[in-house]
Amino acid sequence: MTDNPAALAASRELLIDGRPLRVFDGHLPNVGDYVRGLAKAAFTRTEIARPETAEHKHWATEVKLEALLQQPIFDITRRAVLGFTTSTHGYRPYRAYTNVASFGDMLFSHTDCLPDQHDLTALWYLCEKWDLEWGGETMFFDAQDEVAAAIQPRPGRLVIFDGAIKHVGRPPNRVCYAPRYTFAIKLERLAAGR
Questions:
Q1: What mean pLDDT is predicted for residues 19-38?
Q2: Is the pLDDT of residue 158 over 90?
Q3: Which Pfam family is one of those matched by this entry (predicted)?
């Protein structure tokens, strides 16, 4: 929990091996605008999960940081990240991109930072609707590689987590014809005053 009154309240919070994960719902009313924009975006098959899975690339499109900072979605993200900020450290975005996955794609488990970095990943689910039977969950694992949490896509859902938590996005099931868009903002931890 945070004492910062400007921070968004999480709808769900948990710790995985002492590392935070928080879910935020209901803060992105214009999610359809993002989905329609992504339907026209140029995705390239360039993203990899880990070096040893490099031959299995998946689809992504990068967002320039200058453009990200001007987007309303970033202001919502920034307010949610305030709940992770302390008097000794804050966070700054260093990368933003959207992944798209469809039935049949192969996605691999990975971490987004080294354990001692404590960087954050803000992951937005950009869909106008999502059915439980469509799959597409993001699975989070503990240190023993047991599933510690499964977060399902929902329109405009945001999950923010310590990037050292191992995770994997699951592609949609065969019955799903909608793309699974996830917009990731990677944030590095900074000492206070930077």
A1: 94
A2: yes
A3: 2OG-FeII_Oxy_3
